[in-house]
């Protein structure tokens, strides 16, 4: 085979992989994207022909990228600002601050499941997975209860900015939602500066270290991140985990026999069906990924959903199993950009799965009702109906 033949074969392989990536945006594959992700993983890393972005799907490559401080989120701050901001924000995420939320989380779960038992069914997505995290993050931020629905609507639209298939009409709605979100929280931030309380937003306003504090724009960015991390991802974590349990009754039986496995359900869900499927990074300077060159300022796209099922990393990678030793998944990212809200998501998820073990015994999934949200970057059901006996 000549060098020209090799180059042509490589070009054809890259073009095929680029087409497979485009197919991820087809609504018909929302319910089961993992065969496509597996194909992309086996072809990665490679540079997509249409954008120049380097796509990565193997676990070892993905882990190295996420741990590398020289590769940053494409909308991120420089390293110094990011470290300063993270130090200040982390003061509001102490173990004590998270732990005190447990009774309120359990209360919301109990109310939702009690009402479901009365009705005889529950839409896990609509009745539990959506309202639980948005209620908690709203109350924690000090948002009036009457306005929590606004946060959910804004969050649903703002997360669409991470997808590729946003039509012009929808883009206008997203821009309006962004402006409304900024305006609302600018007013609330100003109010909390004058009238501080014990809520998270007040603590962020007060956060200081070496004489520094968060600016109003940094506060807005932080609140936006918390809304996505504290609502959207946890919503999908809960729905994906309950779905996996109902589809794997042997694993649900293990959980019922030992509710302490609720934490294992969280970790295995984050590996098996992660709420965040795609993660972007940009290179500050030229580097390589798995032998593929990445220029300064160029993008790398990590396929978390593919890497988390890499058979080179996990035995029986496509199976949902609670007997794994703590899996080193990428569900919360790694390194300097590890999800700061991970402890809250873990707490909410583990309390939900503990309740599921106790109260959804004999529940049956209505597969015909299952409908996925249109997101590609964020993955989770929009409708997930379960009958309760």
UniProtKB/TrEMBL annotation:
Keywords recorded for this protein, A-Z: Heme, Iron, Metal-binding, Monooxygenase, Oxidoreductase
Metal-binding in keyword set: yes
Protein name per the record: Cytochrome P450
Family: Belongs to the cytochrome P450 family.
InterPro entries: Cyt_P450 (IPR001128), Cyt_P450_B (IPR002397), Cyt_P450_CS (IPR017972), Cyt_P450_sf (IPR036396)
Domain of life of the source: Bacteria
SUPFAM superfamilies (alphabetical): Cytochrome P450
